[in-house]
Every structure is written in structure tokens, then in C-alpha cells.
Amino acid sequence: MNNLNDPPHWNILPNPRADGGDGSKWNYALLVPMLGLAAFRWIWSRESQKEIEKVREACHQRTAAFQQDLEAKYHAVISEHRRAVAQLSLELEKEQNRTTSFREALISQGRKLAEERKLLEQERTQLMQEKSQLQPLRSVYLSCLEGEDDWQSRARAVLKDVGEALVERQNIYCSPILPRSKRLELEKKLLVRSSVDPVAADLDMAAGLYDIFKHDKHCGDVWNTNKCKNGKLMWMYLKYWELLIELKKFKRVEKVILEK
Questions:
Q1: Which residues neighbour 165 within 8 Å (Cβ) at sequence distance 6 or greater?
Q2: Could you report the per-residue pLDDT of 32-75, keeping only the tens digit for each?
Q3: Coiled coil among the record's keywords (predicted)?
Q4: Which of 152, 156, 190 minimizes the C-alpha distance to 172?
Q5: What are phi and psi of 105, to 5 degrees?
């Protein structure tokens, strides 16, 4: 009987001697241990194979679980990255839209400023033309204004004299001891001057004087010594004539310019 799992030296060879001596006996004596060894090896190989299969299965399960865990983590990381990329893309789009809006606003503002600058240049050119056209008129206006200064000085002098006379007239009117005839004489002189003096006539002082003489009866208190506190209507007329002198002056200048 031969053992196919062992080298050739472990096989039992036939006895070379034909006489059937002790060699055949020893050959069969070795057969039992060899069979036991072969059986043990077969059993050990079978058990080892089972252990190997168990270890292989456990390793396969651990590998599969590890692979599943890695795949889950991979998918989670990929999902997180995708969400981050989507968020960044959205923010980038917003920034791009905002930048585009800013750019359009700047372009629009630049165009508006350019148009305003163009309009300002046109207005400046127009003003320069008008200035060049008005320069002769300005010279004429200043010349006429200087020419009317003499009339204004004479008018103010007349107004000053009339004002002083009215203060004196009202003082006489309010005085219990001064004669009435003196007041009437002063009123007569004022009316004559307002009719004869061309400046007073131009200011139409006669009508105002008649109104003052007829209606201004205001006087200060009994112990009043300030003449300027007497009268009310006359002060209104004096202010009116003062403003009328200024108005007449510019009216005369306007008339001269329009005639030229």
C-alpha cells in the first residue's frame, strides 16, 4: 500500500526476498503508524481548512463592513462637498450679479455725469455769450446810474428839509403855547415848495402833505420834550418818499437804457 501524500521513501516496497522472512513483517508493522499519521494529517488539514475558512469569512465580513463604512463616509463627504460647491456657486452668482449691477450703475452714472457736464458746458458757453452781449449794457447801466446820483442827492436833500419842517410843524401842533398861525405859515411854505420844486413835484409830495396836515394829530405825552415822538402819519410818508426816491432812480435808469 502506497501513501501518495509522502515522498517515495515513505512507500512500502515489496519484499525482495522470496522466502517470506522478517522483511515482510516489518513492512506491515510500519503500516499502522503510517495510516494513523495519514489520518491525523487529513483530520488536521480538514480542521485547518475550516479555521482558514472561518478566518477568511471573518476577514471578508470586516473588509465588507469597512468598505461599507468607507463608502458611507465617501458619499457623506461627496454630499457635503456638493452642498458647499452649490452654496459657493450661489454666492458667486450673487456676487457676479451684484458686480454687474454696480458696473451698470457706474456706467449709467458716468453717462449721466457726462451729459450733465455737457449741459454745464453749454450753459457756460451761453452765459459767456450773454455776458459778452450784456457787457455794453452793463457799461450803459453804470453810466446811467452815475448820472442819476445827482438827482438822488437833490431828492434826498429835499426830503431832509421837508422832514425837518414836518417835525417842527408837528411840534407846533402839539404845543399848547405856540401860536396856530406859525403852524399854518409853515404848512403853506411846505405846500408851495412841493408845488414849485421839480424833485418834490416828481415825488408828488403835495398830496402827501395835505394828508398829513389833515389827519396826523398824534402827539407825545404832556411832558414830552422829544420832537421825534410827535406824529405818526408823517413818519410813514417820510419812509415812503425815501423808498420812492430809490424806485424813481432805477426807473429813470431803465428809461434811459430802453431809449438807447
A1: 186, 189, 190
A2: 677 767 766 777 777 777 777 887 788 888 888 888 888 888 88
A3: yes
A4: 190
A5: -65, -40
> d(Cα 166, Cα 153) in Å, to the nearest integer?
20
Measured distance CA(100)–CA(191) in Å, rounded: 84
Q: Which pTM value belongs to this model?
A: 0.48
The residues spanned by each domain of the chain are 136-259
d(CA 36, CA 5): 13
Nearest to 152 by CA among 256, 235, 239, 251: 251
CA Rg value for the chain? 68
Q: Confirm if 238 and 163 have CB atoms less than 8 A apart.
A: yes
Q: Is 229 exposed, middle or buried (0-12, 13-18, 19+ CB in 10 A)?
A: middle
For residue 42, the one-letter residue type is: W
Q: Is the pLDDT of residue 4 over 70?
A: no
**Do 193 and 221 contact (CB within 8 A), yes or no?**
no
Q: Grid coordinates 494513523 are at which residue?
A: 36
* C-alpha span between 173 and 167 (Å, rounded): 10
User: For residue 84, what are the contacts with CB-CB under 8 A and spacing of at least 6?
Assistant: none
